Amino acid sequence: MSSKKPLDGVRIVDLCVVWAGPFATVQLGDLGAEVIKPENPFVWQPMTRGALARPPAELLHGTPAFGGGYPNNEPGERPWNYCPTFVSVYRNKKSFTVDLRRAEGMDVLRRLVANSDVVYENNATGTMEKLGITYDWLKEVNPQIIFVRVPAYGSSGPYATARALGVHLEGVMGHTLLRGYDDADPSSNSVIYSGDYLAGAQGAFAVMTALWHRERTGEGQMIEIAQAENATAMFTQAVMDYTMNGRTMSAIGNRDVFGRYPCGVYPAKSPGTAQTMEDHWVSIHIETDDQWERFVEAIGSPEWARDERFKTNEGRAQHFREIDANIAAYTAEHEDYDLMHQLQAFGIAAAPVLEASRMFDDPHLRDRDFFRTQTVEGAGTKEYVGPMWKLPETPVEFRQPPVMFGEHNEYVYREVLQMTDEEIEHMRAEGHITMDYDESVP
User: pTM for the full model?
Assistant: First the structure.
């Protein structure tokens, strides 16, 4: 195996916030790119290094885990270094501090861009422009620069200036209406942020294709990915059905969008309830009449399953609620993993639906090396979701734990920017260089 990583030699300036941008740059960092993140000690970016720079301990007990799950519910000395959301997407990156709102800060960015390959940002439309960071400015500094922008709804149009997290994208796009149950109000849906993941994956891919293009032409480029537009991949079938057939889809729960029955998530034998997060479920999908016959055999050919009404998909579609109720009665008496093995042995698609903590014990994920151990200062040594890929010839590893605020000040200012001692001391005296947020930041 070669020690050379796929993106060795590529330097990325990470101006990202929250999740959609950092998720892209963590993938690129996993692949070997040097990801350098300028961070402003005078400005707090919400939900990037946590909800607050210095959250009161009493507040953490009522805060969702992704924003307040600090070790022992204590914020510690530098809580911005180990907020759970942050530590998930800031491995294999470098951090240095600088105030980009000031002229000397923008000069630092200019010098960094001149020695970089990519600038990546996903701020609200207008944020970069207020700082003077435009594609024209970047091209003047580095004609071959690749500039990736990932706004919520694009940089033009009626929604251009709207702020959004993944849940807002879902609502505006209509996905919240489509992913619920057909007998439930959409307001009962849980909050998800899948649009962020999709934007991050697509953005990382866009960077790699842009690098490929530049290697062959010498040309940099600007790429804009509107997160809402990109996330329509989650419900392509609904978009196409409306566009081509004039039909408006509605929520169908866990059923198959192509009308194959049965398809659903069914209760398995459980040690507890949903309130204690100990309810177990198994997903089962049958696509053909032959698979239905094998399913019937797999569960012991009960009388209800041998009903002539269920022999064809058309018949099963007409009576799917009756079928689902009978399947649920059967699965509720069996362990989810036992059901998976039992049904898969007959060629039926089946798998447990795992609550997050149970993933750590899943044999497939363990064999896949899905989790990796890393030590986070202030949070200890724990297991985290690992890189998305395992490549046969090049390593994709946790080379560095989640980066501390300002951890690489010395490296960036002295080695990358080649600043003199006098310049560095001036930047330190002006408050640019630090490992702590200013006291004015709550």
Answer: 0.93
